[in-house]
Fold each of these.
Amino acid sequence: MTPARKAPRTGSRAFAATWWGQAWVDALEASTLDAGRLSRGRTYARKGMVGPVTVTPGVLRAEVEGSAPWPYDAAVHLRVLTDAQWDTLLDAIAAQAGRTAALLDSEMPADLVDDARTAGVSLLPEASELDPECSCPDWGYPCKHAAALCYATVAHLDDDPFWLFTLRGRTKDAILTALRTRRQAHTGAAPEAGGTSRGRGVPARDAFASHSGVFTPPAPRTEGAESAPADSGPAPSPLATMPPSDASFSLDDLETLTRDTAQRARALTAGHTASLTCTPLDDAVRLAASGVGEHWFHQLVHATGLPPLDFALLVRAQRHGGPVGVTVARVPLTPDATAMAAARAALCNPDNAEVEDDTASTVRVRVWRNRLTADDEGVQIRLGPDDRWHPYTREGRGSTARWWPCAPATADPVAAFVAARTAAAQH
């Protein structure tokens, strides 16, 4: 087992007890020259002003108390690894059995991080990767609330290095399952339970790529063609066999999935291949947005591990903007500066009657990354990678206030702003 490198401690000012926790602090403090906001963030963290921290793939979240009567919503985003990078990282973990044991013993093997970095995979964050966000009016990068969230996270990283893996895109359970699969493939061991061989299947993208032909639907039956006897009765259900009584799914569940699979297959034959690259989270959001029942919705929330409101937000983003809408909701993008400037100019044009406010003055718009926000109206539009503008409104009050997708995306920023304003007026 690789021993943990303990971080140097300098009295009460030290937040990290491990070398990987200190690496997190170093990345945070190297990301900004604003020592004042970092100092305030440390003070907030020490005073317990940071609420419970939640970690999901690519983002940390917590409520942080400040000068307002209600806490602010702070978040820190971190780039998730690609599937290819995860394969490299998992291979590095599996290369030495002691690495898995160390992780399960709450230690981060230093040689694992070094080997992964040599292979081009960064597990620990670089200074440029930590991307803070906060609902407070402070434009600091990071503001003191996001800085406090970063400092408060260190204790979680010290206790459980799997927090870093989750931030990079995969949970502890997913990693351990993948490692077991690798061991079985290497040793040729039989499946762990059930007594029968269960094939792993083929990824959809590979199956689709291997089919070089063109799908042709069956020709309609012509008059005089052989047909079934008139008294043969209704066609049997393709899923006529009931699942075992102890199964965690029902016949209705299987039929729902069968219909969904058929719809996706039909879309693939028409050339719509975006679903081939869906992650499990993408697929769960897509299913929930398709109108499944309440039971399914709750099951999907549980399977993703997301807080229900976070999952509901992504579902609404899917309904309004499709897969791109989900990306826009999850990640603050870095857009073309020219496009942002042109959109801001269009919104702030005093001759533009569509967006002129009630006081006969132009709207006041704040720009951050791909977002144009009119804070006093609770209206925001976000530029997506599809060059469309996605309308948002601020819903809720105090600590529950957050930005929600509210209307279909459009190529015109003015139209998107008006749609968001209309939606805000209806709340």
Note: The chain has 15 helices and nine strands.
Amino acid sequence: MGARTFLTRLFAGDAAVLAMKSRRALKIRNLPDRKLLAEAYIPAFAVEGGKILWVGCRAYTADDYPVLEAGGGEVWTTDIDPGAARWGVVGRHRTGDVCEADVVFADQMFEAIVCNGVLGFGVDAPEQQRRALQALSRILKPGGRLLLGWNVDKIADPIAASLTEPWFSHQPFAGQPARVTFAETTHVYDTFVRRPSAS
């Protein structure tokens, strides 16, 4: 628990803490990158359907899963933090390290993976990032889609560092170019398709 949360709980109670967290979640969901996620990428994933893995769960991601499932998708979630399970999909959430996603989900294959705000937020070193991307490629069906969201102030460009090779082909998706940047934030979205011959 952060100092601000502790002090809020101490002086104003649990209801004030919930209100504070709700305001934070709303602020995050109103960022331009989160709006694009909600308005373009999530509907496009929903239309394609299939099994979709969402990597990294927070209060502000929980509203996205029902939208994906309303379109026919089956959402699974994962996070390294056991406490994040409360924001995952009940019955289809697994706690584990994204660098070992192929072990955590050894019995599953996905048509799509959303990995947003994970690289640079715990998966920091280039070798960790490479391991995470390779592990994700092993549980993504050939031709399956990967949405990778990252921040230029947190990590170096994973494509320029050849971290997506040889598993992924950089391709447009959801009416967007293969790479989307934002003037107002440091966020970047890259969209990929899993190469058929990758291993």
Note: The first strand starts at residue 50 and ends at 55.
Amino acid sequence: MPPFTVVCNCRLSQAHIKLLRIHPNNLQLTIRQIFDSLINMSWIDSFMPDYLRISLRARVEPTVKHITKNLNNGRLTAVDENSGELVVSELARQSIVSEYHYLDIPIGELIATQAAQNPGFDFYSMNLDDVLLFGESKYIAATTAHNSALKQIVDFRNNKKDDKDLITVNPFIPQDRKVAFQNYCNGQKGYIAAFASKNESNDELINKLERNKYFKQLVDCTELICVAIDV
């Protein structure tokens, strides 16, 4: 069972744009589950040939130490500025995989070249049509962080961060689905804006999104998913 309840899963004004809103069932337990998931490196064995596992383990281990510190060994009772984006990233990733059956790829912080300083997108997935999706997560304690997440995606797209991240994503795409990279070269790619949400209703949140200037700049992509997480 996923550690969250889906409170909204709908399409917005255009069919290729979705809102997925989730609420953690028990935040302390959710943080513990996220911690256990992120520090468990057994997933490496399912992705890599032997000669690459050594490299990936060496890359992941420093980040696991950073995660251990920020999540206080999984004993946090609430998110804060140090843990917020990590929790949002992982819950968004899990919800996309669970609700849409999209490809399960480890979050960017684990597979990036720098420990806990992921220079690109925060997480990735691929939809059922073999279109790569690039996700960015934002947490702000006082307000819904949709504007920050959408702005970061627009900035990253303008700076070709998605192009640069292809080499990071490549090892995690199954061999029989590598057509995703040809699709990408043909202009088919999507984005996931994940953000902490507060007390507004679903209708209020949808209105905020559709009026947002950065949201409007992203409607031309193949798929856009907004993941609101009530933390």
Note: DSSP finds ten helices and six strands in the chain.
